[in-house]
From TrEMBL:
The keyword Mitochondrion does not apply. The lineage of its organism: Bacteria, Bacillati, Actinomycetota, Actinomycetes, Streptosporangiales. This is FAD-dependent oxidoreductase. Keywords: FAD, Flavoprotein, Oxidoreductase. Its cofactor is FAD. Coiled coil: none annotated. The keyword Nucleus does not apply. Gene3D superfamilies: FAD/NAD(P)-binding domain (3.50.50.60), Succinate dehydrogenase/fumarate reductase flavoprotein, catalytic domain (3.90.700.10). It comes from the Bacteria. It comes from Actinomadura yumaensis. Residues 10-456 form the FAD-dependent oxidoreductase 2 FAD-binding domain.
């Protein structure tokens, strides 16, 4: 690093994930001198690990598929799903900017074909299950592809990228943020964007700001990037920043024996029914990840996925956990219940036998015949491109594996921002010189994840907005 240049820097970006890289490219495109610090050896953070799915309205991809959508419609849906607990002004800015940000990414080289995608792995337009219209944009090469394009644009625009350097704290003078301390050195800048991601890897911060994660007990596992240590919250304390999004995050439902993201762990059998402690079905087993964790959490007592021998045998090979052998081993160890009849299975998991038998009978009458009058799972399966109806749950032995929200993807508590991504203090006033975006900047990600790419869209859109407002031409 060259210290003279550092002193003259217009913008310092803390963190090289989606939000930070988007902020850096945006500022550099406007002619600003930009220095980006990344604590890890590699850039990309959780963004790089993600599917890269990006929710946005009124895009060229939607238009190419004849999907009519507007930022206003997106806004209404977003606010309704979050019970209007978010600040409408901020969310409107996000909903208006997400589409143009996606077009900007496409202009930089991100490829998103105007094609229907049935999952987070196939490039195109996808539906995660809670949208009023299809809004989940899946890029080619997923999150890794997004990061590569943004890194290339950083280099092309002269951003100084500094890996392996964890910013220690903010430099604050007379209430104004004037730079950061990194590698024991004061580095000054016109403004600072904190884009250091979330705090999924810090157990104390989880207990304080996302206690729901603790409810998973020993079954909790974290898939967010290593750098998700909550440094934004520590920086915030230096300037008396207000914290928003307290108590919110995204926990995906998993079987208790999963320890990896489902791309590696594998997928539960299609022919399964989720039952609660009353032995009753209470959800579409394929409900969107945006809401399924909350639905399971709302049940009184444990929830089990019930399936039969045929379903176990039909699990595809090649995954770490949902395989025929692994499920059998869990049953042998007594952790997954296994029984020769449904009443015996009911006894093993402590639910009423008559209710479980009635639940499975109703499921067998409906789902294998392509219907689900109670929970409309047939519609979800169709949106996933899963045409064949599930098999009946009929071949003993029967299995019951506990399912709970235990896979921690991202956290939503961060530095409260306004629609310009400026950080607010506890009085609600802006902290001069300080911006935040992505999981570090809070107020866009709400109680309910607005499926189909809420967090990547938040990171890149708000990172871009932060830079537009923080760099000289925008100030
Ligand atoms: C497996 C997985 C799949 C996902 N899939 C999707 C999806 O398809 N769509 C979606 O919307 N969301 C998805 N998410 C969530 C989404 O990826 C993240 O919420 C989002 O990308 C966060 O972006 P960010 O820039 O805020 O943080 P990150 O991408 O995590 O970047 C933060 C960076 O800051 C660095 N850093 C931290 N502290 C410091 C410091 N003090 N100094 C310097 N650098 C620091 C970190 O190392 C990291 O590189 C997924 C998440 C995971 C883990």
């Amino acid at each position: 690093m060259n210290t003279e240049e550092l002193d003259a820097c217009d913008l310092i970006v803390v963190g090289g994930g989606g939000a930070g890289l988007a902020a850096a490219v945006t500022a550099a495109e406007r002619g600003a001198s930009v220095l980006l610090f990344e604590s890890e050896k590699e850039f990309g953070g959780s963004t790089q690990l993600s599917a890269g799915m990006f929710t946005a309205a009124g895009t060229s991809v939607q238009e190419g598929l004849g999907v009519e959508d507007t930022p206003e419609r997106f806004f209404q849906h977003y606010m309704d799903l979050n019970h209007w607990l978010l600040k409408p002004g901020l969310v409107m800015e996000f909903c208006r900017a997400a589409g143009p940000t996606l077009e900007w990414l496409i202009g930089l080289g991100v490829e998103i074909p105007a094609a229907v995608s049935h999952d987070a792995h196939t490039p195109g337009l996808c539906r995660a299950g809670v949208e009023d219209v299809w809004r989940g944009h899946v890029p080619k090469d997923q999150g890794l592809g997004l990061v590569q394009v943004l890194l290339r644009a950083c280099r092309a625009n002269g951003v100084e990228l500094v890996p392996n350097t964890r910013v220690e704290r903010l430099l604050v003078e007379d209430g104004r943020v004037v730079g950061v301390v990194a590698d024991g050195m004061d580095v000054r800048a016109g403004a600072v964007v904190v884009a250091s991601g979330g705090f999924a890897r810090d157990r104390d911060l989880l207990d304080r700001y996302y206690p729901a994660a603790g409810r998973a007990g020993g079954d909790l596992f974290v898939v967010a990037a290593e750098g998700s240590r909550g440094d934004h919250l520590r920086f915030g304390e230096q300037v008396d920043a207000s914290v928003a999004g307290d108590g919110w995050g995204l926990l995906l439902p998993t079987a208790y024996f999963q320890r990896l993201h489902h791309w590696q762990s594998g997928f539960p059998p299609k022919s399964r029914v989720h039952v609660n402690a009353r032995g009753r079905r209470f959800m579409d087993e394929d409900d969107s990840y945006a809401v399924s964790g909350g639905i399971i959490d709302a049940q009184d007592g444990p929830v089990h996925a019930v399936f039969d021998e045929r379903a176990r045998r039909s699990l595809p090979p090649g995954y770490a956990h949902w395989t025929p052998e692994h499920v059998a081993a869990e049953a042998d160890a007594g952790r997954t219940a296994r029984a020769g009849s449904l009443p015996e299975l009911a006894a093993a998991i402590g639910v009423p036998a008559d209710a479980l038998e009635a639940t499975v009978a109703r499921w067998n009458d409906q789902l294998p015949n392509g219907r689900d009058e109670d929970f409309l799972r047939d519609r979800t399966l169709a949106a996933k491109g899963s045409d064949a109806a599930p098999d009946p749950i009929a071949e003993p032995p029967f299995y019951a594996a506990r399912v709970l929200p235990a896979e921690l993807v991202c956290t939503h508590a961060g530095l409260e921002i306004n629609g310009s991504a400026q950080v607010l203090d506890r009085r609600g006033e802006t902290v001069p010189g300080l911006y935040a975006a992505g999981e570090a900047g809070a107020g866009v990600l709400g109680e309910r994840y607005v499926g189909g790419g809420n967090a990547v869209a938040n990171a890149i859109t708000m990172g871009r907005l932060a830079a537009l407002h923080a760099t000289p031409a925008g100030r």
